[in-house]
Amino acid sequence: MGKATLSGPLMVGTNKDGAVGTNNLGTSLLAQKMFFVTPALAVSTTDADGQTTTTYLGQPAVAWNATAGANATTISVQLPANVAIHDIVIDQSLVTTGTNATLAFTAGISAAGVEYVASTDIKTTVRLIPTYTAAHLIAMRNIGTNTSFFAQINTPTNPVTAGVTSVTVLYMQR
To answer: The pTM is what?
Structure first.
């Protein structure tokens, strides 16, 4: 698959450059996806420079912590500066199993950050769009130069024994 890189924002519509008005131009909705998977599903590769990358289906991935006591699992992606986060979608295509009562999901600008999503239980959910507070929506309106987007799942007591959870961050470049 070929890739193209644009230095957006990408505006789509029938009005061309120099046309009067932008009444039918819209900003494209972009997405980045990351996966939390059981260790057997994670694919790790090391490049010529010794950098190791972990993926699942070609997307960034992290394997769940497999031991008790190391219960927070975090993954991050980089977003362009000054984007607006439109939504965060959490999908479990292979429902998570283990003896935990809850799986606490958070999202923010650091590993334990809650700027975008406060602690939300995702254990029994197949698809979840979190409930946002006013503070979350304000933070998502323009991320400024905080371009790291962290998603974290905390398994409070026991390791996850099976599961594939994807987190898709949908955003618009300005």
So the answer is: 0.84
The angle at the Cα of 76, spanning 73 to 81, to the nearest 5 degrees, equals 155
Nearest to 23 by CA among 31, 14, 34: 14
Q: Report pLDDT digits (tens) over 37-48.
A: 888 888 999 989
Query: Contact, 50 vs 34, CB < 8 A?
Result: no
Tokens for 128, please give them. Answer: 């979840």
The answer to whether 147 and 109 are in contact (CB under 8 A) is: no
So what CATH class is 26-172? mainly beta
3-class DSSP string for 91-131: EEEEEEECCCCCCEEEEECCCCCCCCEEEEECCCCCEECCC
